[in-house]
DNA sequence: AACGTGGCATGCCACGTTGCAAACTCGACG
DNA sequence: CGTCGAGTTTGCAACGTGGCATGCCACGTT
């Protein structure tokens, strides 16, 4: 067992309270008392017991980051930034991975984490606004990423419709006309995908083009393999001259399919991705993509957690289209 | 404030202890008492206070995973597996990110986490065995990855020397003779890099080739940009016919440099990486690599944490060479 | 009628910490 | 010389939980 305040107190010949005062830097402690107590602390290797502190303060300094999969590059990069910024603010991040499983998401929403965390940053995959509204847990919650419908919680996201329009506009501006998309979600649940699709359609229509159903390819998940598969299917019907992929991972998978079929990017087919993950910067050719400001997202989300109690807000983080070599 | 055992007790008209018995599934609780208490629990939305439980049991169910950067794909994939396996075992993982900073690593080793975690999985970058030996903290610790010198802690790693020899042997077997490496660490600290270099040299010598100093390229970190840079430098002196990169990220950076210089992989230059990250499976061409069994690493490390108290062991996880299209 | 037994419920306490308020010391001031 | 107050130290209680031991009751046995 580790040394407790009491052990230190006995060792230094003072009261428990005085040791506590030293540990917490209380002002009115005589210099030599402080020195003596500190010596005992060092000698006994005393470390404050965080459980006891937490019990006293009902505050843990922990926040949970809930994501479908931490090894998906977008979430990994977001997690890295969240952890870093949280560290600066004296918070520690605990990772919960749902694998996109509805039941696991629901459990976490409804307080599986108990009093363990001071707040939850939640990147939903399967749960719907209705599930959020039914929440009884009182731990502050901030949603990461798009969601629609009126959910009574803060959420931080970029403007997906605008971003998708910019991506599509860029493809149109470079002369492409047969523009496909990869990343439509079969279930209507994923709001980000829906908004990106909406933006794409809006921009096509604004340009005077009618959407072609066959060019809007669904995927099950957002992995490279899904993009690869969808691209192959797309090529089987008609070869588009551009593909707007709803994530960079899908785009990288699609590019591999194109390479295997001997098609050149961007000469035969232009590609735009979404997320600006590190891999896209080093792919050959380098990927044009919509870049959400991940530092801002993490930072704004932590702000929102800290500011809870106020009426829920929708917070828009900045994004930008980064043109590289695939368009 | 959330409901406490006492609130539930009052609401149900029983003692606090009885509620506790219900919550913990104690045998001797009358069925209708149990029902009544459960109803009160549901109505009040009672959740056990983990801090209090922890204080009582001196066990948190948390373990820390300490890595240089969580968004480096290898660590992201390792973290994903660790989190998943830990969940199965009733543990929650908390991520600490050191950015490879010596001071941050030292702090974590010496108990910054206090009594918050039941164990630490530590993937060191900057700290040396001596720092480990000087550790006073009593929280169980398991090192992930190579380290040499006698450190009095468990560690889990693959056989880096053997793996590097296999990679080199494979390149030799495909007829390559001017084999360079990228990933040597300028400081002698990183043991993995040192062992991979040793394996490479051993295999060359066993084949009757003398190592060429100029072909052993150092890097500062293990990012794509480092591999890119190192490859460019390598091309400025002499074009090797193969490069063994100490991580897949370095390899992907190197491949980008080769593409820019108009060199073909694998025709002009063969590439072998190390880590088997997802990106390498979808790069064009797909990357030949040494694949450490990450599930085994995570699983063995958690076993080792659970089994602490016994004399420290070196645990070897399996690996295999996966031949794809870059060789 | 006394006794034993098994089922069930409860009170007390400790886990390690800190807030609160009181108590004590000592020099300065009227 | 008494009083005041700043500086310093302390004891007590409480945060929410669960281990322990004990108490109580109904029922069956001797």
UniProtKB/TrEMBL annotation, chains A, B:
Entry keyword annotation includes Ion transport: no
SUPFAM superfamilies (UniProt xref): lambda repressor-like DNA-binding domains, Periplasmic binding protein-like I
Keyword field contains Plastid: no
Classification via InterPro entries: HTH_LacI, LacI/GalR-like_sensor, Lambda_DNA-bd_dom_sf, Peripla_BP_I
Pfam families: LacI, Peripla_BP_3
PROSITE patterns: HTH_LACI_1 (PS00356), HTH_LACI_2 (PS50932)
Gene Ontology MF: a single term: DNA-binding transcription factor activity
Start and end residues of each HTH lacI-type domain: 3-57
Keywords: DNA-binding, Transcription, Transcription regulation
Name of the molecule in the record: LacI family transcriptional regulator
Species name: Labedaea rhizosphaerae
């Amino acid at each position: 067992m580790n040394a407790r305040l009491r052990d230190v107190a006995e060792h230094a010949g003072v009261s428990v309270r005085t040791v506590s005062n030293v540990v917490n830097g209380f002002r009115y402690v005589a210099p030599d008392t402080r020195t003596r107590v500190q010596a005992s602390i060092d000698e006994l290797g005393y470390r404050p017991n965080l459980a006891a502190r937490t019990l006293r303060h009902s505050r843990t300094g922990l926040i949970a980051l809930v994501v479908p999969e931490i090894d998906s590059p977008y979430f990994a990069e977001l997690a890295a930034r969240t952890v870093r910024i949280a560290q600066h603010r004296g918070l520690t991040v605990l990772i919960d991975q749902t694998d996109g499983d509805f039941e696991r998401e629901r459990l976490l929403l409804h307080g599986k984490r108990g009093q363990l965390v001071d707040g939850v940053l939640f990147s939903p995959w399967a749960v719907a606004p209705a599930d959020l509204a039914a929440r009884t847990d009182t731990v502050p919650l901030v949603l990461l990423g798009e969601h629609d419908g009126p959910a009574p919680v803060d959420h931080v996201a970029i403007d997906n419709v605008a971003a998708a329009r910019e991506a599509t506009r860029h493809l149109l501006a470079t002369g492409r006309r047969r523009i496909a998309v990869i990343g439509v979600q079969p279930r209507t649940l994923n709001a980000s995908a829906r908004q990106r699709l909406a933006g794409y359609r809006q921009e096509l229509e604004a340009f005077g083009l009618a959407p072609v159903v066959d060019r809007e390819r669904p995927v099950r998940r957002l992995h490279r393999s899904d993009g690869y598969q969808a691209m192959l299917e797309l090529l089987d019907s008609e070869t588009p001259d551009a593909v707007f992929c709803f994530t960079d991972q899908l785009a990288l998978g699609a590019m591999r399919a194109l390479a295997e079929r001997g098609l050149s990017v961007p000469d035969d087919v232009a590609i735009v991705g979404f997320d600006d993950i590190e891999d896209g910067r080093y792919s050959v050719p380098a990927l044009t993509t919509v870049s959400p400001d991940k530092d801002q997202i993490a930072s704004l989300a932590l702000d929102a957690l800290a500011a809870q109690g106020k009426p829920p807000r929708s917070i828009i983080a900045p994004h930008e289209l980064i043109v590289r070599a695939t368009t």
